[in-house]
Amino acid sequence: MGKQIGFSEIEYGAKRKKTRREIFLEKMERLVPLEFFCGCVEPYYYVKGKGREPTALSVMVKMYLISSWYNLSDEGAEDLIYENQAVRRYVGIDLSEENAPDRTTLCKFRKILEKNGINKKIFEEMNRRYKESGIIFKEGAIVDATIIEAPDSLKNKDKRRDEEMSATRKNNRYYFGFKANIAADKDSGLVTALTVTTAKTADIEAASNVLTGEEKEVYGDAGYIGITHREDICVKFKDEEKRGTVIYYNHKKGRLRLDKIRDDVKFEINRKRYEIRKMAIGMERDKVKEEERAKSKVRAKVEHPFRIVKNVFGFRKARYRGLEKNLNKLYMLFCLANIYLVMQKKEKAANK
């Protein structure tokens, strides 16, 4: 006998207008490879037959996705399932037959993902699929970083701030939190690598952690000026045939002998704005401004994943303490941001 449909489901199905949340969830249900996500978690999930029957894995994965898309706490995700019919339909919960998984269940599920690094595996496997399908070319990269704020209140159990976060100043304003450093594909704008650092860490310090050394073009803003003079970058982009060395002088370390960067690699780094403003008005200044504008047109693609994570998914402030937990969350968020970008590109192509 088939599953009996409740009155609330009949009433909900009879409405004529679809809400934006309902449209979004329908699109995500088509685009997110749920079987693959579940397959990554299944080896680490609870085994049936040992104690209480575990919640269906697909339900827990969808509940975790809901908490990521709407930047919800474990308790907030539980409440949203009870409050919204579209979310219940997506997750697969019928309140006439069962209750939604509680916040403790979601918390334990999230810890399984964190302990086993599952979000990173999903992120890397999805990028491998994009590369095989030709969406990501990996011939050029755009590096950038954004500040994610963290709670700076002392009203907590330890009576102190998160020790792994730090404060920094940007545009005459102070921020407390950490930095999300990413590398995006030059052509598609999809995020290919990411890492986290404290907020006071310079952007250029994390560049070598998000670049593979296989790129032929690297774009960055003025925060990456001098990237070709860094030892960790020169080692990654060294000339395998000539194996030459270049001597640089560093006021802290003295004379440095660095591996020569390959001749086929271009580093397109924007100049500082005040340097251009100081130039005399004329053809030379106009030429420099045009060159900087061309770099910025390419570099603008790296802002799209940040916009999705911060504005669409609402992740503007860290919910968890520690860099490791936030890095784990960002792997899933940027993985979902890549899926969102691919969806936008397909819709744009279909409307042409």
Question: What this model shows, in words?
Answer:
The protein has 352 residues and is of the alpha/beta class. 45% of the residues lie in helices and 16% in strands.
SSE order, as H and E?
Answer: HHHHHHHHEEEEHEHEEEHHHH
End-to-end Cα distance, whole Å, is 46 Å
Helical stretch tally = 14
Radius of gyration: 24 Å
Report the sheet-strand fraction.
15-25%
Q: How many separate structural domains?
A: 2
Shape: globular
Strand tally is: 8
Question: What characterizes the major β-sheet?
Answer: 6 strands, mixed
The computed structural class is: alpha/beta
Mean pLDDT: 88
Low-confidence regions: none
Overall helicity: 40-55%
Please render the helix and strand layout as text.
Elements: H1 7-13, H2 20-31, H3 34-41, H4 57-69, H5 74-83, H6 85-91, H7 103-116, H8 118-132, E1 140-149, E2 166-170, E3 173-185, E4 191-198, H9 207-210, E5 217-220, H10 231-236, E6 245-250, E7 254-259, E8 266-269, H11 273-277, H12 283-299, H13 303-312, H14 323-351
Parallel strand pairs: 1-5, 5-8
Antiparallel strand pairs: 1-3, 2-3, 3-4, 6-7
Helix pairs in contact: 3-4, 4-5, 5-6, 5-7, 8-14, 13-14
Summarize this entry quickly.
The chain is α/β, with parallel strands linked by helices and 352 residues long. It has helices at residues 7-13, 20-31, 34-41, 57-69, 74-83, 85-91, 103-116, 118-132, 207-210, 231-236, 273-277, 283-299, 303-312, 323-351, and strands spanning 140-149, 166-170, 173-185, 191-198, 217-220, 245-250, 254-259, 266-269.
